[in-house]
Amino acid sequence: MSLNRLQRVQDSPARVVMDAHRRTDAKPLLRQLHWLPVYQRILFKMAVLTRKSHTTGTPTYLSQHLHQRTATYSTRSSSLPLLTVANPSTVFARRAFNYTALTTWNSLPADILTADSVYGRRAARWHTVLRWLLNTTVL
Fold it and tell me: pLDDT digits over 68-85, tens only?
């Protein structure tokens, strides 16, 4: 099932909940409901899963793909917890966790990467992830 079809499945309940007409644009409705569109929700879940497996080391089948990038010289980004991304040889390999999750993680804003916790005191910073995701383009 493609993302467009899944997005249409999500748009329908949004229209029902907001009591909107069938042809009403669903994007403003999703924003009112604080629902992420399908693609952005996938990115959010990928970022949270990467964060959890990077900080806790579990599950091991995912954390074994996460390696901290070591900087060869000092730059502003060398203090960020970026992950090493292998260059995939095929388009199919770009769908794997060890590429998609790492590129998603590395593309997050710096204040998100350095936040202490997803749910703790600095959890408000993770709300900027939602704003960042809503501004990302759909592939």
Answer: 888 777 776 677 888 888
